[in-house]
Structures are given as C-alpha cells and as structure tokens.
Specification:
Number of strands: 12
Strand order of the largest sheet: 2-1-3-5-6-4
Number of helices: 9
Structural class: alpha/beta
Strand content: 15-25%
CATH topology of the largest domain: Rossmann fold
Bound molecules: 2'-monophosphoadenosine-5'-diphosphate
Largest sheet: 6 strands, mixed
Order of helices and strands: EHEHEEHEEHEHEHEEEHEHH
CATH architecture of the largest domain: 3-Layer(aba) Sandwich
CATH class of the largest domain: Alpha Beta
Helix content: 25-40%
Radius of gyration: 18 Å
Length: 265
C-alpha cells in the first residue's frame, strides 16, 4: 500500500484527501492519501520522515510551497520559475518537485472555451497564487496585466514572469478577455476587490477562491453577463495532474469534482 498525502498547515479543511481517495478507489489503486499537518518549524523533520517512511507523493499547500524546495533533490524548471512547488513525487528515494497549479488554471480556461492568444487578461493580486496564474496566462499567449494593492509586488512579479503592473486603484480601466481574482478577498466573506462595473469590460471572470463557491466577485461578474469559472475547477484540475504524476493513470475528473464538492458542503 503506497502512502500519499497533503502537506500543509492547517490542512483540516483540505479537499485533497476526498478528491484523491475517491479517484484511487475508483481505479482500484492500492494507495491511501492522508493529511499531514506540519507547522513550519517542523518541516525539515517532516521531510526526513517522508524519506524514511517512503511516502510516495505529496501535495504541498500553504505555507510550505516555497520552503519545501529546500528539501528536494530535483525541481522542475517551471516550478522554479513560478517560485513554488505544489507537488512532490518520491522517485525511488529521490524527491522531485513540480507545480501543477498553473496547469489547473490553463485547463480551467481551456474548458471554458477561452482562446487567449494575443488577448488581454487581467490578474487581481500578486501573491503566490497569482504567480501560477500569470505563468499559465503567458503560456496561453495572453497579454497579462497584474493589478495589486501594493504596486511594488506586482512590479516584482511581472519582472520575473512578464506582463505589465498596475495599482489596484486603476482596475476600473482594465479590459480584456478574462479577469482572474487571486487574492483572499471574498474568502468566507461577501467582499470583492473590484468594483462591479469592471465586469462589463471582460468576456469571462475566474475566481481562485472557492469558499463560498459563488463568491461576490463571480456573482457580480455573472450579473454583468460574464462567463464565470469557479475556483473548484482549478483545484480539481491541479489535483488531477498530481494524480497522474503519483499513479501514472488518468483520474475520473467528474468524480474528483463531485468528491471535492461534497466535502465542501
Ligand atoms: P497567496 O499565496 O494566497 O496568493 P499572498 O502571497 O499572501 O497569498 O498574497 C495575497 C494577495 O492578496 C496579495 O496580492 C495581496 O495584496 P498586497 O500585495 O497588497 O498585500 C492581496 N490582498 C490581500 N488582502 C487584500 C485586500 N484587502 N485588498 C486587496 N488585496 C488584498
């Protein structure tokens, strides 16, 4: 029996165990996926434990996505460019880190039928989550504009990943194919970081927040006639890609989405 799991702090509300175990069960794969709650000061010991116990693979979440890189033998160039590892695979004792968050973003946009080549895309926020989003948008050929409360942070982001930086106060002048919300504003609260008038300038809107599933950002985007993409889509697609890396098999996507949705309720 292989052991897989999510490494984070906290992880009690993670949807990953439900999602991965549903897929493992459906495919009859002899593995279990657990939740490892590791405070930052114990991360070095935890990574020694991963090796000693022969844990097969990890999903890595907040606050370990950057620091986990110190404990790996190999890091995929894309993860290095994004500056975060959200997936670790134990390859016969050698730990390899990669990033599937950007793939989750890319697939969510593709599934919505958006072709971003040569089109403008606006990103709200410039934190860790925004980095994977900007990478995915640049890969899709979009012209990226990053709007952030702290302009310097947006400038630093576009300097390493490309695009143009603006203060969040200028968001009402933004327009393009899609606007993507990556801040924690709206998480468990009825708030949105952008005025609702801005949605008239976009064809689609995506929120990375999925608690609630229908955020104020998405509700106002929908009311303005935008196509909307919820944050659970990205979570499931990034998890599906991890599942492929862990097991070499294609997971049942609908089942993973349903399992995550069920756990969310
Ligand atoms: P994550 O890794 O989840 O992206 P993070 O790195 O802490 O988290 O980044 C949080 C993002 O949300 C930042 O872009 C932050 O803006 P600042 O760089 O100005 O701090 C943004 N953010 C958080 N609270 C916000 C608020 N009330 N209004 C606007 N932006 C906010």
């Amino acid at each position: 029996m292989r052991v897989l799991g999510v490494l984070g702090y906290p992880v009690a509300h993670s949807l990953s165990p439900a999602m991965h175990n549903a897929a493992l069960r459906a495919l009859g794969i002899p593995a279990v996926y657990g939740a490892f709650e590791v405070p930052p000061d114990l991360l070095p010991q935890a990574m020694v434990g991963v090796r000693a116990l022969g844990i097969g693979g990890l999903s890595v979440t907040i606050p370990h996505k950057e620091t986990v890189m110190l404990y790996l033998e190999e890091i995929d160039p894309v993860a290095r460019k994004i500056g975060a590892v959200n997936t670790v695979v134990n390859r016969e004792g050698r730990l390899w880190g990669t990033n599937t968050d950007w793939i989750g973003v890319k697939r969510s946009l593709e599934e919505a039928g958006l072709n971003l080549r040569g089109r403008r895309a606006a990103v709200v926020g410039a934190g860790g989550a925004a980095r994977a989003v900007v990478f995915a948008l640049r890969e899709a050929g979009a012209e990226v504009e990053v709007y952030n409360r702290t302009l310097e942070r947006a400038q630093a982001l576009v300097q390493s990943l490309g695009g143009r930086a603006f203060p969040l106060s200028e968001i009402s002048q933004a327009s393009g194919e899609v606007i993507i919300q990556t801040t924690s504003v709206g998480l468990k609260s009825w708030e949105s970081p952008v005025p609702k008038e801005v949605f008239h300038n976009f064809r689609a809107a995506m929120d990375l927040v999925y608690v609630p599933l229908r955020t104020r950002f998405l509700a106002e985007a929908e009311a303005a006639g935008c196509l909307t993409i919820d944050g659970l889509k990205m979570l499931v697609y990034q998890g599906a890609e991890q599942f492929r890396l862990f097991t070499g098999k294609n997971p049942p996507l609908d089942l993973m989405y349903q399992a995550a949705l069920e756990r969310l309720k």
